[in-house]
Design goal:
The protein is of the alpha+beta class. The protein contains five helices and 14 strands. It folds into two domains: about 120 residues, Immunoglobulin-like (Sandwich); about 90 residues, no CATH class. It starts with 7 loop residues before the first helix and ends with a helix.
């Protein structure tokens, strides 16, 4: 991957019209050496971007989950607090050249600066100046779970009763439980919503008796939100 290396002085010249972005870039670059792109894209809060790259990990390629742990998230929020983005899911595969092709679905959460940095090289994989929405709106970040009924219709899982298993959860559209609409041995698509952008995260799974088993390990879901993953794993017994 080719990334232009520029000094803080060059960044200041390029971004002089946006003092907030200059200060954020400078703070991050001073704290830890990295390479920065010449052009800094600007995107609005509640938008999403797919970051697709090929990374060289040497002779032994990691899993997607392990690879994500070698990609550092760096934030510089305008209000000085918290993160500015989150990775919602990621998937990928080895290339013929022995690299790892990985795609990451990034949701933009609050104004500021966001960077993804490859720890092995210090290269910046993605960066953006995140600004407030030009139009009012957005959605609260509440976990929503939807299950395909096998005919292309999404059924909404009602978690208000705090079920211990997803099979015991009720369906909002019908006076039924998930176990009543998910036959044993069948595969279904499950959709999760937990993002500022309102973007869906989808996985495939099969019911085997009283268990729900994922039929593919990809995508890796909500790597930046372990509490959400814990709730999902508790419900589905993964």
């Amino acid at each position: 991957m080719s990334v232009s290396r520029v000094s803080l002085h060059s960044i200041a010249l390029l971004l002089v019209a946006n003092l907030g972005a200059v200060l954020a870039v400078a703070a991050i670059a001073r704290s830890q050496p990295t390479t920065l792109p010449v052009k800094l894209d600007t995107m609005e809060v509640a938008q999403a971007v797919m970051v697709t790259i090929e990374l060289d990990f040497g002779p032994k390629l990691p899993s997607i989950g392990d690879a994500l742990r070698q990609i550092e998230r760096r934030y510089a929020a305008d209000d000085g607090q918290g993160r500015t983005f989150a990775i919602l899911d990621a998937y990928g595969q080895p290339t013929q050249e022995g690299k790892l092709h990985i795609s990451m679905h990034v949701s933009l959460e609050k104004p500021g600066l966001g960077l993804l940095v490859f720890r092995r090289t210090g290269d910046t994989l993605w960066t953006s100046r995140i600004v407030q929405r030009s139009k009012p709106g957005g959605r609260p970040k509440n976990l929503g779970i939807f299950i395909d009924d096998g005919r292309g219709n999404l059924l909404t899982v009602n978690g208000s009763d705090n079920p211990k298993s997803i099979l015991d959860a009720r369906i909002r559209e019908h006076p039924l439980q998930v176990r009543d609409v998910w036959p044993i041995g069948t595969e279904r698509e499950i959709t999760f919503l937990y993002s500022a952008c309102g973007c869906p995260v989808k996985v495939m799974a099969r019911r085997t008796g009283e268990r729900i088993v994922r039929t593919s390990e990809m995508p890796v879901i909500f790597p930046d939100d372990p509490p959400v993953v814990k709730v999902v794993e508790g419900l589905f017994k993964w």
